[in-house]
Write a structure and sequence with these properties.
Elements lengths: L4 E5 L20 E5 L22 H4 L4 H6 L13 E2 L15 H13 L12 H11 L11 E4 L1 H13 L5 E6 L4 H8 L3 E8 L5 E2 L1 H6 L5 E7 L11 H14 L3 E4 L15 H4 L5 E6 L12 E6 L6 H12 L7 H13 L2 H23 L4 E4 L6 E6 L10 H12 L1 E2 L1 E2 L8 E5 L4 H18 L7 H5 L1
Parallel strand pairs: 3-14, 5-6, 5-8, 8-9, 9-10
Antiparallel strand pairs: 1-2, 4-11, 6-7, 10-11, 12-13, 13-16, 15-16
């Protein structure tokens, strides 16, 4: 086929209107463009001789520790017993914890309005951001719409905060045991993760001395999860103030993962970290997922608390720029957000908390009397951690082996805490129906009684 070219007049490009723009070869007037859109004459280009498409370094360095462990487990449930999964942090799995009707109605109204079918600003609709600001503002830590960025779930909020605060080669401090996503995100960005210890004997308080010892000149962020996943712990006001004192001393900003804020059992209080900070900038990450029981709706937010203007405009603008990478959160949920926050009755929250507390007490009470197990009673969130005295279970190599065999024999799946880099524990999700929780605890007891050995047993005893 004959190749054709055309003259294309370039007016006003790169200069004032009416002034001919310069072509790529420096001459004014026209460009020669072939029919296939390339500049003419075309410059010869080298080409690959064979296909060689590889995943990026970022993709290859992305690893979810939970998936890495669970995918490697041999999970073959006992065919004679129905499976009870106590491993998934999704309160909707069993259908016993529906969201409130007011939440659903807010979504219906947003859909029916036909106002939220297009793009929103990448940081979210102004009215929706103001609704979040109003909901979480308090005298000790006031918020305006400009202090709120809406995100695609709390996970994206965490990703944006890590991304705006850290460069490759920096390090962040992460609780251990802690939510595995922090490490997944950081390592993929070339950021080092330093794990600071939580203390089970002190209801999972932070080992403050250990945490402070990890801080150096490349520490860009301290992550504090309160209430905790996977521990279900809730820090006291005094303990949060001690954490803030360390951050203030070393001038390290805090990423506060507060997705479980207000999911606190009666008798405990959990003030936001920002409300107790006088100088440490707090970037609080939250969302609808857990308190409103709609994790699949993917609505999260970042609350920027910076009363001394430590972060300045650069961090705020950086968050805006990063938010533009995916053009924001779901607009339908944004449209419903104001009504969700304002119209959800207190009775809905109270009912959820009452159920979680009751299930936690059942689980803790039952497993506390099982030889070889050491559960730690939670104070909030949806989880309970159970220690395994491995010396009493010599038939198992570690917590992964223990929980794998528990599935095989009893069809009960608890997440081994090695997934949170905390071996010899397992995590139980307490959102299952009560009768299922009772049954699961009975099966765990039966399993432990079968495999438990007193410390006095020697190898010859085990062989008999």
């Amino acid at each position: 086929m004959e190749s054709k070219s055309y003259l294309v007049q370039m007016n006003g490009v790169g200069g004032k209107a009416g002034v001919p723009a310069r072509s790529l070869n420096g001459k004014q007037g026209v460009h020669h463009v072939s029919v296939n859109g390339s500049l003419y004459p075309a410059k010869a280009k080298s080409r690959r001789l064979r296909w060689d498409v590889k995943a990026s370094d970022m993709a290859n360095s992305t690893l979810n520790p939970i998936r890495a462990i669970v995918d490697g487990m041999k999970l073959t449930p006992n065919k004679d017993k129905a499976m009870i999964a106590l491993s998934i942090g999704d309160p909707t799995v069993f259908g016993n914890l529906p969201t409130d009707e007011a939440v659903l109605q807010a979504m219906r109204d947003a859909v029916d309005s036909h106002k939220f079918n297009g793009y929103a600003p990448s940081v979210g609709y102004l009215r929706s951001r103001q609704a979040v600001a109003n909901f979480y503002s308090c005298p000790e830590a006031s918020l305006e719409a400009e202090d709120v960025i809406l995100t695609s779930g709390c996970s994206q909020a965490i990703e944006l905060v890590i991304g705006v605060l850290c460069n490759p080669g920096d390090n962040i401090l992460v609780p251990c045991p802690g939510f595995s996503l922090y490490k997944t995100l950081a390592v993929s960005m070339g950021i080092k993760v330093k794990l600071y210890n939580l203390l089970p004997e002190k209801s999972w308080e932070v080992d403050l001395q250990h945490m402070e010892s990890l801080i150096d000149e490349r520490t860009s962020c301290l992550i504090v999860t309160n209430p905790s996943n996977p521990c279900g712990s809730v820090f006291s006001r005094d303990h949060v103030q001690k954490i803030l004192k360390v951050a203030s001393k070393h001038c390290v900003p805090i990423l506060a993962d507060e997705i479980y804020s207000d999911m606190v059992f009666p008798g405990c209080s959990c003030p936001s970290i920002a409300s107790l900070s006088s100088d440490v900038p707090i970037l609080s990450c939250g969302g609808l997922a857990k308190r409103w029981l709609v994790p699949g709706w993917r609505m999260g937010w970042i609350l920027i608390h910076d009363r001394n203007d430590v972060l300045g405009s650069e961090i705020r603008q950086g968050l805006v720029k990063l938010s533009q990478r995916i053009l924001g959160a779901c607009t339908i949920v944004q449209g419903a957000l104001e009504n969700i926050l304002n119209n959800t009755p207190q009775s809905f929250y109270s009912k959820t908390i009452s159920f979680l507390k009751s299930n936690s007490e059942i689980c803790f009470g039952e497993l506390s009397t099982v030889p070889g197990l050491n559960p730690v009673m939670p104070s909030g969130a949806m989880y309970l951690m159970v220690g395994i005295d491995m010396d009493h279970f010599p038939g198992f190599k570690n917590d992964v082996d223990f929980t794998e065999q528990l599935v095989t024999e009893q069809s009960v799946f608890c997440l081994p805490a090695s997934a949170f880099e905390y071996p010899n524990f397992f995590r139980i999700v307490v959102t299952v129906p009560e009768e299922m929780m009772v049954e699961a605890c009975a099966r765990i007891r039966e399993f432990c009684q079968r495999h438990y050995r007193p410390r006095s047993c020697d190898s010859s005893d085990l062989e008999q």
